[in-house]
Write a structure and sequence with these properties.
Layout: H1 8-17, H2 42-60, E1 67-71, H3 77-85, E2 90-95, H4 98-104, E3 114-119, E4 132-138, H5 147-157, E5 158-171, H6 185-193, H7 206-212, E6 216-222, H8 224-227, H9 231-234, H10 248-261, E7 265-273
Parallel strand pairs: 1-2, 1-4, 2-3, 4-5
Antiparallel strand pairs: 5-7, 6-7
């Protein structure tokens, strides 16, 4: 049985079919937060999502001719950006959802690149050992059955000297006594954004996960403040957090925004390298 698909993708796929969405399915990055009174603009959000992709692709140090795997590839936006900027690349995107992969298949290869989209589980990748120069995972691993198993799989398919570059959301449970929304945060996240097997980040020490997989954690960057403005676009404005908003998608979006606003959500960019044999 394949892992479940987060239900919010139903809304994203419907929006894309209506011509209202983009090929990015993650939060955005702002170097400076927009004014709080500024109206939310879909084009601005799309630019911020592209900036987030650009930052992570720069961290990955992509170069022409590399073999690149994007795990949890969404609608293909990240590999589409690499496809535009580089040549002679062998790029593979994997996802558990065949609907998302059909959307990805609309990305036309450029510059001698090869693009392939494959249905697969992030914790059991169907590839031989040491076949990729880069593994990407943009805002997806908190959905996986186990971050630990994903790190092990990423390390296995990377060539020596290769890089794992990812973004991840890590949540912290509100302390006892903290005033919280009227609805259950954990239930809201699981119903609207699940699967989220480790909602409070019990096994989310990325440096330790990298070491256990035989990788070296090269950089972990906290982008929580830079990604927080995204909720102007993803969560209802002026919502009353003392009442249950009812709709599971609205409830989940509000839960994530509340956790981000309260400093209980960390959004991380990370890069890990697979050492050469003499360095391990």
């Amino acid at each position: 049985m394949r892992p479940a698909v987060p239900p919010y993708f139903d809304y994203l796929i419907d929006a894309l079919r209506r011509g209202e969405g983009t090929h990015h399915v993650h939060l955005g990055h702002w170097d400076e937060a927009p004014p709080p009174v500024a109206a939310a603009d879909a084009a601005e959000f799309a630019r911020a999502q592209a900036r987030l992709d650009g930052i992570l692709l720069a961290m990955a140090g992509l170069a022409d001719g590399q073999a690149v795997l994007d795990v949890g590839c969404g609608f293909g936006g990240t590999l589409a950006a690499a496809n535009t900027a580089h040549r002679d690349m062998a790029m593979v995107g994997v996802n558990v959802d065949a609907r998302q992969l059909r959307i990805c298949s609309g990305v036309a290869p450029q510059h001698g690149n090869a693009l392939r989209w494959q249905q697969a589980d992030a914790c059991s990748l169907p590839f031989a050992n040491a076949v990729f120069d880069r593994v990407l995972c943009i805002e997806a691993m908190f959905h996986f059955a186990s971050r630990r198993r994903f790190f092990a799989e990423a390390a296995r398919v990377l060539r020596p000297g290769g890089l794992l570059v990812a973004s991840d959301i890590v949540l912290r449970e509100p302390p006892t006594g903290r005033q919280v929304p009227a609805f259950s945060l954990q239930e809201a996240l699981q119903t609207g954004y699940g699967p989220w097997p480790d909602p409070w980040g019990r096994d989310a020490d990325h440096a330790a996960l990298a070491r256990a997989a035989g990788l070296h954690s090269d950089e972990i960057r906290d982008a929580s403040a830079a990604t927080a403005p995204s909720h102007r676009f993803t969560a209802p404005r002026d919502a009353d957090m003392t009442r249950d908003p009812g709709d599971p998608a609205r409830r989940a979006a509000l839960a994530l925004k509340w956790l981000h606003d309260e400093g209980l959500l960390r959004y991380l960019y990370l890069r890990c390298v697979k050492p050469h044999a003499e360095q391990s």
